[in-house]
Amino acid sequence: MTVAGSASTRAGRFKQAQDGAAEYVAFFPAPLPPDPPLSLDVDLHRLLDQANQALGRLDGITLLLPDPSQFLYTFVRKEAVLSSQIEGTMSSLSDLLLFENEVSSGVPVEDVEEALNYIAAMNHGIKSIESGVLPLCNSLLREIHALLLRSGRGSDKTPGEFRRSQNWLGGTRPGNARYVP
């Protein structure tokens, strides 16, 4: 890949890139730590305080839950449905819950199975980190990815391996994408 031209911001730069005959604009993040260093001014301290207060309220609410694992159960399933919908599945949270309780919802089984793969992957990651089996690391990410793509769309795209080709959001290729990381 060759790179030419750039437009800089503190967060990074958009650069013209080329991969073979395909040209596109890609975002290259600035290295960390930022230069100049992050300045914790009064406004940023206020926002940080608000974020900490919100986290404290959320943590306090968990003490009121009769069974916090039920909250995690629902959260993981909702996230699985939303994530799989990004990939084009048509299942809803209701469809997933009906399927898990062996009630037919009329949604293609493949769509619900993709959401189930997300759940299996998320639960594997959470259990691995909580139990100390693996920290958040490349090895765990590859295991999670293999579970995520064990069936359905993408199961033929090297599950458990890091992508070797350019990724993009929107469009059909980097050249007409809305965003290329």
Description:
There is one protein chain. By secondary structure, this protein is of the alpha+beta class. It has a domain at 68-160. The protein contains 5 helices and 3 strands, in the order βββααααα. It has helices at 42-64, 68-86, 93-100, 109-131, 138-148; strands at residues 2-8, 12-19, 22-29. It has a 3-stranded antiparallel sheet, with no helix packed on it. Helix 4 runs antiparallel to helix 5 (138-148). The longest helix has 23 residues, at 42-64. The radius of gyration is 21 Å and the shape is globular. The relative contact order is 0.10. The model has no long low-confidence stretch (mean pLDDT 87).
Structural class: alpha+beta
What is the overall pLDDT average? Answer: 87
Numbering strands along the chain, what is their spatial order in the largest sheet?
Answer: 1-2-3
Q: Percent helix among the residues?
A: 40-55%
| Overall body shape | globular
